[in-house]
Amino acid sequence: MKVKYFAWMKRTVGVAEEQVDVPADVRTVADLVMWLRARSAGHAEALAEGAAFGAAVDHRTAPFDTPLAGAQEVAFFPPFTGG
Amino acid sequence: MSVRVQEEDFDVGAELERLTRDNKRIGGLAVFVGLVREMHVRDGLHRDRIDALTLEHYPGMTEKALEEIEDEAQRRWPLEATLIVHRHGRLAAGDRIVLVAVGSAHREATFEACEFLVDWLKTKAPFWKLEDTSAGEQWVGAHEGDTQAAARWEKKG
User: Fold this and answer.
1) What is the CATH number of the domain that holds A47?
2) How many angstroms away from the CA of A80 is the closest CA of chain B?
3) With contact defined as beta carbons under 8 Å apart, do B26 and B78 qualify?
4) What is the residue-level pLDDT of chain A in tens, covering all 83 positions?
5) Measuring CA to CA, which residue among A20, A32, A54, A7 is closest to residue B131?
6) Whole-structure pTM value
7) Is B157 domain-assigned?
8) Is the residue at B139 inside a domain?
């Protein structure tokens, strides 16, 4: 699946998006966060426990218990500040 | 009923004219235009001047999120017309950022729905502001006030 990062998270991780092949036991957004943290120091910092960020699965805001089955694109981002 | 995310500026008069031209049932329009503020209070004591900001968004999700917010307003109020135009990219102080316009037969619905749309788009549409301040670049943090403003509509309807 494709993983995207926005705003300051993109800078901290170091890439705007990446293609990942996750193991079968990564079933939810929360599992994916844990798994991504191990990829680099930037990932670990951006996705740290207690960091204020949200997620979307296939362009829809998704709580961390959202299942990833069939997901094409997961995004992580800080709270929105538009308008 | 339409939503647009664009880099270029918009002409408020032309947009409103287009919105109402073919619908004579509209008795009133409420309009909100968001602008880039020149000054920004950082922590209540210090003020950093904002020269410009860059609005990042999530193409694909943004349009969907705005359409859902628009649909929700349609469900809650008897609206004849709605329009959301949100800009992205680099904007200077004084530039227009967002236009929200709501038309209905009666004014109460337009005021309420317009306020609802602005409150919800601030917290539910994927936009992020990167400010170019006199102290350097800073990502804007979410406003507790915005979250509370959006939350009061959760109880309603």
Assistant:
1) 3.10.20
2) 5
3) no
4) 999 999 999 999 999 999 999 999 999 999 999 999 999 999 999 999 988 999 999 999 999 999 999 999 999 999 999 88
5) A7
6) 0.89
7) no
8) yes
Search chain A and give the residue with CA nearest B60: A59
Is residue A76 a part of any domain in this protein?
no
The CATH number for B35's domain is 3.90.1170.40
Contact check, Cβ <8 Å, B124/A56: no
> Which residues of chain A make contact with B151, given a CB cutoff of 8 A?
none
pLDDT for B157 equals: 46
Count of the separate structural domains present in chain B: 1
| Chain B residue set in contact with A, beta carbons under 8 Å | 34, 55-58, 60-61, 64-65, 86, 97-98, 118, 121-130, 139-143, 146
Domain that holds residue A30: 2-71
Q: Residue A3's Cα: distance from chain center in Å?
A: 6
DSSP state of B41: E
Q: Where are the alpha helices (DSSP H) in chain B?
A: 12-20, 61-76, 107-124, 144-151
Taking CA–CA distances from A83, the nearest residue in chain B reads B122
